[in-house]
Amino acid sequence: MELDAARTVFERLGAAPQLARVDRLSRAVGRATGPHRPGGLTPREVQVLRLVAGGATNREIAATLVISEKTVARHLDNMFVKLGVSTRSAATAYAYEHGLA
Fold first, then answer.
1. How many CB atoms lie within 10 A of CB 22?
2. pLDDT one-digit tens code per residue, 22-42
3. What SS3 class is residue 56?
């Protein structure tokens, strides 16, 4: 958001060198944040979804990711809301449909 605001100001001022710098920074930030993830999932939620799609239980996911089972459950709740699903099998189907599994 800050880069977009800076771009707007530099365009109004006609500050071409600064505008070019903002464009370079925007591209760098885009690379740093990685590719778009379907459903707006966080990188950790994608990890959890892949493990769910592979048939892992909450306990197995917790052990694999070195997090608590409660944290796994929270990630699942968040994913279900973001994806508009209510079951692990629906989330698994979503993962396969979107190339996440």
1. 20
2. 777 776 655 444 555 678 888
3. coil
